[in-house]
Amino acid sequence: MIKELYLLLNYHVMTKILIIEDNDNIRENVVEILELSGYEVFEADNGKTGVEIALKMKPDIVLCDIMMPELDGYGVLHILHKNPETQATPIIFLTAKAERVDVRKGMELGVDDYLTKPFDDLELLRAIEARLKKRELQQLFYGQTAENLNTLISKEDGLLKLKEIMLDRNTRQYKKNQYINYEGDHVTGIYYIISGKVKTVKLTEDGRELITGVYKENDYLDISILFSNDTYNDTTIALEETVLSFLPTQQLDKLLFLYPDVGTKFIKILANDMREKEARLLQIAYMSVRKRIAQGIVHLLLQHGADGSSIKFSRDDLAAFSGTSPETVSRTLSDFKAEGLIEKTASTIRVLNLDKLGKIKN
Question: Which of 7, 18, 63, 16 is nearest to 39 (CA)?
Answer without folding.
Answer: 16
